[in-house]
Amino acid sequence: MRGFCSIWRIRQRRRSVMAEIELDVLRHSASHVMAEAVQKLFPEVKLGIGPAIENGFYYDFDLPRPLTPEDLAKIAELMRQSIRAKHPFIRQEVSREQARELFRDQPYKLELIEEMPEDEVITIYRHDDFVDLCRGPHVEHTGQLPEDAFALLSVAGAYWRGDEHRPMLQRIYGTIWHTKEELQAYLEQLKEIERRDHRRLGRELDLFSTHEEAGAGLIYWHPKGGRIRAIIEDFWRQRHFEGGYEILYTPHIGRSWLWETSGHLDFYREGMYSPMDIDGQDFYIKPMNCPFHILIYKSRRRSYRELPLRWAELGTVYRYERSGVLHGLLRVRGFTQDDAHIFCTPEQIEDEILGVLRFSLDLWKAFGFEDVQAYLATRPEKAVGEPARWEQATNSLRRALEIEGLSYEIDEGGGAFYGPKIDLKIKDALGREWQMTTIQFDFNLPERFDMVYVGADGREHRPYMVHRALLGSLERFFGVLIEHYAGAFPLWLAPVQARLIPIADRHVEYARQVQDQLRAAGLRVELDDSGERMNAKIRTAQMEKIPYMLVVGDREVANGTVSVRLRTNENLGAMPVKEFLARAQRLVEERNNTAL
RNA sequence: GCCGACGUAGCUCAAUCGGCAGAGCAGCGGUUUUGUAAACCGCCGGUUGUGGGUUCAAGUCCCUCCGUCGGCUCCA
């Protein structure tokens, strides 16, 4: 007991010392120690950069050969040795010449030195016999790094300075925490992320697939995934009609004229697929829906009286993505945007933006995402449209964010060349942020297509145009939804809401009656009439994450009840079928995301 | 696209040094009729991603392409 206490006390003491050291500093120092280890292993290494990042650190190296997992083990061991040696970190200011001399064999460091402003003080940090160009700060000595609370996680290629025309370096990712417990908690979280991976759950729950033979980055929605999508789409449409939107359907391909006029062939060509020849004309498959919506706008003369027009489409688009970036449902080559375009007068724009923002937040809430972070992207260097319009548009975006009381960050110059925008990132159950919603002004297309409306003054005016995708794309949204709920969808979204589990064959008949009754009432119910034992049927249903398991045996048949088991393992016991139905219907009706 | 790793049955994974491709689960057939997370027996299942090369012999070594994974970059 005493031993335990003293260990505990030592841990507490270390914890309190370590707590004073910022994690960033710890991580940055760890990256230096890692670089030292790599340099010991490969004296000829050319060093890139090695910053602290969220959850850890990395360092980029130019090495004579690819690193292996065995190398990582060796590097980690060398790091532990350095930590035990308690080498002090020494900060030193040097002149530009000294720095050049010091790093004469380090081309990447030299490049960084050359790019530093003349008046900047150049500092280096030494520990042991390792020296690095570095702003700091660092821990006092390597012994302050907990040797049992770090791990080297992976090696990956990374271009020098993120530029694909520069050499590719090898990046080692590592993580370090104050204590072993925190490290373990982090590694456990990584495992949880893996368990929730939508690609894995997509297969296990039979939701979707991709097919190598038929092309990468193209999604096949299976019946269960399709059912969820249909529910999402129905709900989405209903909300849009209620929100004053109309629904459009437009073609998948358009003649080159359309894309020349829109400017896509000039500015977005690398995202588009090669044209197909139809009767000697070039047709392109659409990467965006906007030009089509504009054609509908222009199909007749528009009056200010009919503005604003809010036109939405679940529009399927195809964009070329480099093979290396494809990722499950989250990054694909064909996807369906929940797109809409709003055409309005300058006077209406502020209300419209506020409306879209509210609408979006509402929608996210309905799907169980409460935590939203906004980003306001302003005018970039190179931009089309009058500055006054930019200013008005940006202000209306900002005002909408402020009226809604949404916390936001400004992404200075981060807007598209054709207009400012608001992006929303939503946080999932594991606290990860996903960029989904985008609300973008467009000063470009109305010009290019010469869109006009007739104002009260009888003259022609240029309408404002706003693009917005709220869920983003159904594919990506579905991917995030799967991970957010770990495949255990809320009742209203669950592809199968209840499974009837007859205990023996003689109960199948009754189970079928109950199934018919529940189905007629609108519930999605399956019957497991396989020859398995009840326990196996329950296990199967559990693994499929079906919300309700309705067990029926002799007692239920006699009493006209079902015995209700939840996928949470909770057992509600027997209840009349009507009672169960009322419960389920109520939860579906209110689109309850948590209760069963 | 680039760097690295990987690709064996529907899924998860074995196969020593280059020497007869194997298991569990799933599926199918049978037996069992069961009270809240896996009954038992049997059967089926493969041109080892693709094409080429080295070798007496290739899942294993070399090259090509396709795909997947981790990144870089970009984005819904």
Cα radius of gyration in angstroms: 30 Å
Percent helix range:
25-40%
**Shape assignment:** globular
Given the helix and strand composition, which structural class is it? alpha+beta
Q: Order of strands in the sheet with the most strands?
A: 11-15-16-23-20-19-17-18
Average residue pLDDT = 91
Low-confidence stretches: 1-18
Which oligomeric state applies? single chain
Distance, first to last CA: 45 Å
Query: How many strands, what sense, and barrel or not for the largest sheet?
Result: 8 strands, mixed
Q: Please give the number of β-strands.
A: 28
**Binned strand content:** 25-35%
Q: Provide a count of the helices.
A: 19
Describe the structure.
The chain has 596 residues and is of the alpha+beta class. The protein is built from 19 helices and 28 strands. It has an eight-stranded mixed beta sheet. Strands 1, 2, 3, 7 and 8 form a five-stranded antiparallel beta sheet that branches. Strand 17 (372-377), helix 13 and strand 18 (408-411) form a beta-alpha-beta unit. The longest helix is centred in the middle third of the chain and has 20 residues, at 223-242. It binds one RNA strand of 76 nucleotides through strand 7, strand 8, helix 7, strand 16 and strand 20.
